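pinging the channel bc i need a second pair of eyes. not urgent but kinda urgent?? the chain im working w is below, pasted from the shared doc
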Amino acid sequence: MAVLGHLWEHREKRRPLLVVIDEAHNTCPGEPADPLQAAATAHAIRLAGEGRKFGIYMLLSTQRPQKIHTNVLSQCDNLILLRMNSSEDLEHISESFSFVPHSLINRSSQFAQGEALLVGKIVAAPIFGVFEGRVSEEGGSDVPANWARSR
């Protein structure tokens, strides 16, 4: 909430900026759980709708597109879709990105790791692509089970 609010307050600087929100369903959910989440969602809605004219762009990442606030998701002009198994999420993506043929979105349930559908202003026409291996060391693994053992 504080970061998104700060970006909006300083929008007049018109400094090109890409705001990446991983697990976006936690930052701008359709149904905020508390006042802090509601404020973050309100800032995200404002940035998604009006930020581009100030050079502020958003990249949302989620495994649960249905949980992102409709007013944020509806402002997305591009889609990079990796493997998606949930038929409900696929249907929601089809509705939200009505400019993407339903048949292309449905193919995502058959993607292997790294395969993706790219659609929108970032490509001339819908294409399938592959993201290769990591450049950096993979992180984000679970905490070891023995982390709290006595010494």
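so The longest strand covers residues 115-120. and Residues 35-50 form the longest helix (16 residues). — does that match what u expected or am i reading it wrong
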